[in-house]
Design brief:
With 143 residues, the chain is an alpha+beta fold. It is built from 3 helices and 5 strands, in the order αβββαββα. The protein has a 5-stranded antiparallel sheet with strand order 1-2-3-5-4, covered by helices on one side. The structure holds guanosine-5'-monophosphate and zinc ion. Residues 7, 16, 18, 30-34, 88, 94-97 line the site of guanosine-5'-monophosphate (5GP).
Length: 143
């Protein structure tokens, strides 16, 4: 079901123009208007779902099942030296459009437009700390 006032639902329906890369019954993929790197593509489910938290397993399954072939199509087209997949959930994590989407960001080397500030804290955790944390998350995982 299309969600009122959702720009990505409007893109799926053709009410807002987009540069379409791929479409089938479950999924739509199009070029991100920001083109962080050349070929930067968004893959979205046709079903409106706000973000990963609200996504039923079957929607996630159909969505991610298409990602490898779209990634390979971008790779074949622009010959990047790598590719990052990114999915932002909620505003503090940089989600700005509230229809689930996976960014495919082909990489071309230093200064290509994409950067992540990944800081390791591995020195702060012993294996026992990690095990205790993992158990808590595991206990909260829906059976
Ligand atoms: P987010 O920040 O939610 O992870 O990503 C949203 C992305 O949607 C941004 O990278 C932004 O450039 C892209 N975007 C927003 N509006 C439009 C639009 O109307 N058309 C296209 N093609 N991309 C859009
Ligand atoms: Zn939507």
């Amino acid at each position: 079901m299309a969600h009122e006032d959702c720009i990505f639902c409007k893109i799926i329906e053709g009410d807002i123009p987009s540069a379409k890369v791929y479409e089938d019954e479950h999924v739509f993929a199009f070029l991100d208007i920001s083109q962080v790197t050349k070929g930067h593509t968004l893959v979205i489910p046709k079903v409106h779902t706000k973000n990963i938290y609200e996504t039923p397993a079957n929607v996630a399954k159909e969505l991610f099942a298409r990602v490898p072939k779209i990634a390979n199509a971008i790779k074949k087209t622009y010959n990047p030296i790598g590719m990052n997949l990114l999915n932002n959930n909620e505003e503090p994590a940089d989600q700005s459009v509230f229809h689930l989407h996976i960014h495919l960001i082909p990489r071309y080397g230093e200064g290509d437009g994409y950067s992540s500030n990944w800081v390791t804290h591995s020195d702060d955790y012993e294996m026992t700390d990690l095990e205790a944390m993992a158990k808590k998350i595991s206990d909260n995982t829906e059976k």
